[in-house]
Amino acid sequence: MLNGLWLGFFIVAAVSALAQWLIGGNTGIFAAMVESIFAMAKLSVEVMVLLFGTLTLWLGFLRIAEKAGIVEWLAKALGPLFLRLMPEVPPGHPAIGLITLNFAANGLGLDNAATPIGLKAMRALQDLNPSDTIASNAQILFLVLNASSLTLLPVTIFMYRAQQGAPDPTLVFLPILLATSCSTLVGLLSVAFMQRLRLWDPVVLAYLIPGALALGAFMALLATLSATALASLSSILGNLTLFGLIMLFLVIGALRKVKVYEAFIEGAKEGFDVAKNLLPYLVAMLCAVGVLRASGALDFGLDGIRHLVEWAGWDTRFVDALPTAMVKPFSGSAARAMLIETMKTSGVDSFPALVAATVQGSTETTFYVLAVYFGAVGIQRARHAVGCALLAELAGVLGAIGVCYWFFG
Asked: Which GO terms describe its cellular component (predicted)?
């Protein structure tokens, strides 16, 4: 899948460049494409320097939380809910702890770090699966919730914005929180419908209703604020949550007699190992996207969509963010490349860049997650996993666009 996508970028770029040369007489198009390849290779290294630090930092703090028992406490707190949503998973099964840890990593926006934890969780669920090739209900629910990307603190998005010179990297904190809530809710409801889960069970309602009421009240409060006040509140809450979470991990770790420095170093080493493997993928995708943009093919496609949107009488500012949304179901590295390219081309705090950042933080690489997670345990029949995951993805994209018009429009 990734092979075809990556090769397709270059083929489309080549066809577009030939058309511009032979039909349009643009003799400098190939020089621009070659220049773009080297520029994007340089940018990949610059992004990776900050990504090394970000993943190393947060996996270090996540290890403190794990040793302090915070993850175990979360697993116990969520146990009754998982018992209803995944009835085939016995209480206290190791899969519950791994699922919780995976959700914690996703919640912090550490999508690359969440993958190895998620693979362990999927293998644990496969141990309970009576079939070797057909996905179980528990595996489907776990995968769809994973693909819906419930991101409570998108630190990697903040990192990309900081690297591109954003004066306030956390500006998109609240838009991402609201958009990712849309995708997760739609993912949960779609799976519950297909699996006939009893969401009206008193225990499930005891978890869902307070969360829904709190989110509704929060959105009602936001509705009373101006766009300037919304942006300011997003910045304050983003930075406060970020630092507050660090202090929470450290204080609880210290109270539990955890050697916080040693635990941090242990987790940080794992973060370094995760990050160093990402550079080849980042170089490959950024260079492909750079060539696509330099050839004029990307602009040509976006212009076509923009004309359709104008014909419908809608605002067209979100169109330049669509490349991130369109490739996100297939490849996280391609979506990252599209996001970074949009920020460089349009400006890090431009409306398209803010929409692209919100999309990146509120949706997941559906087909990649399906291929990796199910492929790791030999699942061949995904049943309703694909449809539910794509529905959640669509909800995240539409939610991101709508929320950004609300906050920044």
From this structure: plasma membrane
Q: What is the pTM of this model?
A: 0.72
At 250 the pLDDT is: 92
In tens, the pLDDT along 363-381 reads 777 766 776 678 777 787 8
User: Element (H or E) spanning 277, and its range?
Assistant: none
Of 407, 353, 351, 361, nearest to 232 by C-alpha is 407
Give the contacts of 290 (CB within 8 A, at least 6 positions apart): 36, 37, 39, 40, 341
Give the Cα separation of 103 and 114 in Å (integer): 8
H/E stretch holding 350: none
Burial of residue 216, with CB atoms counted within 10 A of its CB: 0-12 exposed, 13-18 middle, 19 or more buried: exposed
Q: Which residue has the tokens 């398209």?
A: 352
At 277 the pLDDT is 66
Q: Which two structure tokens, joined as six digits, stand for 243?
A: 């630092």
Closest C-alpha to 228, from 31, 408, 20, 9: 408
Sequence-separated (6 or more) residues with CB below 8 Å from residue 234: 170, 171, 172, 173, 174, 175, 407
List the structure tokens of 206: 């005891």
State the residue for tokens 């591109």.
164
3-state secondary structure of 187: helix
DSSP-based three-state secondary structure for 131: coil
Q: How far is residue 106's CA from residue 357's CA, in Å, rounded to a whole number?
A: 16
Q: Is there a contact between 21 and 29 (Cβ–Cβ < 8 Å)?
A: yes
CB atoms under 10 Å from CB of 132, counted, come to 10
Q: State the average pLDDT over residues 6-24.
A: 87
Q: CB-based contacts of 107: which residues, under 8 Å, 6+ apart?
A: 150, 151, 152, 153
Higher pLDDT, 282 or 60: 60
- SS3 (DSSP) at 86: coil
Q: Yes or no: say if 114 and 58 are a contact pair by the CB < 8 Å rule.
A: no
As a whole number of angstroms, the distance between CA 203 and CA 159 comes to: 38
Average pLDDT of span 80-107: 78
Longest dimension (CA), the chain: 71
Burial-class residue 381 by CB neighbours within 10 Å (0-12, 13-18, 19+). exposed
Q: Select the more confidently predicted residue: 225 or 313.
A: 313
Structure tokens at 20: 């511009």
